[in-house]
Amino acid sequence: MRLSLVTKKTNEINKYIAYIEELKVLKDGNNFDQTKHTKELQEQIKNLRKTNDILKKDNKAMKDIVDQIKLKLTVEIKHLLNIKDSQIKKSLIKLLDHTLG
């Protein structure tokens, strides 16, 4: 009777050991997946930061171009407003209303 009880407990212990080993394998595999996923996310973040830096530079360049256009437009408008012809002034005001408005 004692021998069968010991055998039964030994089998139960072996079953738990196998279960623990299975859990370890699953955990290690899960950690591998998480590590892989983390690396992928870090790579995506790195790429997004590079893209963001490029976009910031492009936006700054575009802003500089727009500022140059505004300056040239202001100078030309000032020039045109100094002309005595009222027809030119009216056309200019109409143009400004359409572009600004």
UniProtKB/TrEMBL annotation:
Keywords for the protein's UniProt record, in alphabetical order? Coiled coil
**Domain of life, per lineage:** Bacteria
Coiled coil start-end: 38-65
Question: What's the protein here called?
Answer: Uncharacterized protein
Source organism: Waterburya agarophytonicola KI4
